[in-house]
Write a structure and sequence with these properties.
Elements lengths: L1 H17 L30 H10 L1 E4 L5 H13 L5 E2 L26 E3 L11 H5 L7 H8 L4 E11 L6 E4 L15 E4 L2 E4 L2 E6 L9 E4 L12 H4 L4 H4 L12 E5 L4 E4 L7 E9 L15 H4 L4 H6 L12 E2 L5 E2 L6 H11 L5
Antiparallel strand pairs: 1-10, 2-3, 3-4, 4-12, 5-11, 6-7, 8-10, 8-12, 9-11, 13-14
GO molecular function, one term: dioxygenase activity
InterPro entries: Phytyl_CoA_dOase-like
Keywords: Dioxygenase, Oxidoreductase
Amino acid sequence: MMQALQAVRRTSTRRCLSAKPAVGHSGHLSADSLKNQHDAPDLGLAMSHKHKYLFDLNGYLVLRGVFSPDDVAAANAAVDAHADTYHERTGQLRTSGLYGRESHALAGDGARGRLDMGGLLAWDAPHNAVFRSMLNHPALVPAMTELMGVGYRLDHSPLLLGMEKGSEGHTLHGGAITEAGEPAWPLRYECVGGQMRNQLLTACLQLTDAPAGAGGFCAVPGSHKANFSIPPALADLADDELAEHVVQPAIMAGDVLLFSEATLHGTLPWTLDHQRRTVIYRFAPAGSAYGRGYAPEWPAAMLAGMSEAQRAVCAPPYHPRMNRTCLDEEGSAVAPKPREAWKVEFDEKVFGSRYF
């Protein structure tokens, strides 16, 4: 019996050493010769080593001058034309007193709340143009692809945040570990084999200058890799020793901020005379979802007139190997390699549909 088993093991070992490794159903092996032909294509998109290092180090990255002054002016004109759709957060909606706690450090003047505006992608042209271009901007696609993988998708409807002088800040939130000490799986950041993945990535288009000390976005650098729960006094900026680790990076009009939702982040009260304007977009990997605005589908007005590439970013969650259109380095659509007809035909017989 033992001799028979040893013979089988020797045969198996020879096969493993001599045969080309098989590709599993998930197609997870990355070497070109081993890739499943329907896996996400290698589009050759490159995020600089400097930017990779900074994002992995801090959990956020500011890309400077992505949008031109003309783009910024056009976007601000569009916001001005829709100023009557701002909604101020007051009462229970105030952002400096979340989780049943009041933060003195984040309260601002105690009266002004944040201004929220939605629906930007559904505005009539030309007012929607700059906001739609965030989905597939050539200066953003390499970083977005590096941080979420090929076929990244829009997960939340964009939201414009407006703040007047004295407006309150926002309790720090997100983070790799919740205040209750549980892993924040839906926000997870990982770097494995030199590849970064963010389960939920926020991209912020800055429309007005937010220099250092002005207020606005703040974060705890490196907290996307934390292993211990968030001290409530840090979330509320109620402890000086903890608060000194909170950073408010300078973000100027036309810049784009990228940050992992696993990074502990919030907003400091606004101190300048001009209105703070930041448009936040949340993206996810091709097969992941946190929000549900896409279900059963995005509003028709939001999709009307979009380019093929922009509509591809708005597709619901499914893996690129399931015939997902992706983006190249120019932000243009790249058609998927279709599944073999005989596979599709068989799936239709089994499941009654092309996909299962």
